[in-house]
Amino acid sequence: MNDVVKLFGNRQIPDGALVKTMVLFCILECLSKSIIYWIRPIFETTLMIEIESILFKSCICLDFEKFFENGPALNCAKIYRHSAAIKESASMLVFDLLGSAVGLCSSASYLYGIMEPEILGRLLACLALATCIEVVLFRKLKLLKEECVKIDETRAEEMTECFENFFISKVTNTNEHARMSRLFTSDALLRYSILTGLLKLQNQLTTCAINSYILLCSNAARSVPISAIRELFNVSKSLRNLVDSFFELESMRIEVEDLEDISITASSGKHHLMPKDSGCIRAMPQGRSDNGVVEKSPVLLPIHLQPGIPSKAFVRLAGLTIFIQRIPILAVPHLEILCNQKIALVGKNGSGKTTFLKFFLGFFKFNGSVEVENAPVFNISERFLPIISYIPQNTYLNGTVYDELRENIQSDEEMIKISKIFGAHDFIKTIPTKYWTSVSKLSESERQMVKIIKNCSKKAMLLLADEPMYCLADEVQDKALDTILSSPNHSTKLIVIHHKSQINKFDKVLYFENQKILAFTPAEYFEYIKKKDNSL
């Protein structure tokens, strides 16, 4: 860390700038190692030498000030000269977290279900490398220093054309190429690498374990270091948690600039990622039990529960304003959520329903008063983890049906019983592999049903569901909603719905309009909408 600080001289170092500098440098190191690792088997040796040379020279000539507008003014030669020191001092904070960024992305094959892990890993690596060459060599060619390196622009164009031909001829024979390449457009490589790095830290996944896991899944077990195999027992589940969280956060379009609100501290060998403001989220690392098994924890933990006086009010909000990047997006003057209440969230698309649910997950900064069971909430604690179950609108399940359902269900008998209640057992038993079928092989509505059963099976005081029936057939929706609402696993339920015919199934309606929340009974809601329509 001190070596990084020295590069700034006597200038003030903003936390965000320091993180950006370290992360970018480590990503470049990642590109020069992970990418070469993945694509070496599919290119000729002579071509690989050219790739390594161009990539290496690109890294040392990148102008940090131009890459990050208003960023720290760092001299390229200084960066290169101090690279070893930066790498060593940053390793615990960032380098080990991002050393497998491309390898982490390769695990997305389990979610997309379109390619084998090895093929997808190579494709993503090539995309990242092609992006590096395009951005660094083409757009920033004038920044290259003649004393450092001389690169022929024509040769660079030939290299990029070679990659494009490879994509078309050997990897992509469907339209999925465009879907994959979105990961590495503009600043996405940097953004996603930072995000996977933070999630990797929280799930306590080491680079060695992830690479080994990917190799095992690629039928290349003979290449796996023996010392890493012991770590693989918990990698699969932790990696699934990481990837699920990755797509949850990615859906919020977290930008690089958000890092300016994050400071990284290290104490007693443990890392904590903390926003500067007291009302913000804080991601805590996962703990270990006495037997050394990694305990599951989510990426963002919302609220710190304190023992309080029993009250009918489960959650009480007063004068609450929710922010995204310091911009107020939702106001809640006063709202009480009672124990055992079934609450419908309604409103136009983009009115704030999903934002409100994610507020309870700790995604956003806020001002105002928040109380849970009469206890004021100021920060985040793992105590609140067991009381929330969340059904997001888009979740990428990557295991078998059995693996996903048994995560929150104690026995096979109970799993089958619950599947029958939701009507899922009928379609599962028609599949040749039945409960051992990969979720990626199911239709969208079938995957959604697995997701509903999985999350409704978790015993939690609060259920948050974001349009859980959105892709189910009309004849299935009402039965699924009735089953969710009658589930004994959750005392309080907040569910986003769009069909007015379902509103009477709820105790309370929260109507989202003009960045505010209005609370009604079902009868009051229909009366309000009727008056509103008549006034138009």
Automatic annotation (TrEMBL):
<dbReference type="GO" id="GO:0042626">
    <property type="term" value="F:ATPase-coupled transmembrane transporter activity"/>
</dbReference>
<dbReference type="InterPro" id="IPR027417">
    <property type="entry name" value="P-loop_NTPase"/>
</dbReference>
<dbReference type="GO" id="GO:0016887">
    <property type="term" value="F:ATP hydrolysis activity"/>
</dbReference>
<dbReference type="InterPro" id="IPR003593">
    <property type="entry name" value="AAA+_ATPase"/>
</dbReference>
<dbReference type="Pfam" id="PF00005">
    <property type="entry name" value="ABC_tran"/>
</dbReference>
<dbReference type="InterPro" id="IPR003439">
    <property type="entry name" value="ABC_transporter-like_ATP-bd"/>
</dbReference>
<dbReference type="GO" id="GO:0005524">
    <property type="term" value="F:ATP binding"/>
</dbReference>
<feature type="domain" description="ABC transporter">
    <location>
        <begin position="315"/>
        <end position="536"/>
    </location>
</feature>
<keyword id="KW-0547">Nucleotide-binding</keyword>
<keyword id="KW-0067">ATP-binding</keyword>
<protein>
    <recommendedName>
        <fullName>ABC transporter domain-containing protein</fullName>
    </recommendedName>
</protein>
<comment type="similarity">
    <text>Belongs to the ABC transporter superfamily. ABCB family. Heavy Metal importer (TC 3.A.1.210) subfamily.</text>
</comment>
<dbReference type="InterPro" id="IPR039421">
    <property type="entry name" value="Type_1_exporter"/>
</dbReference>
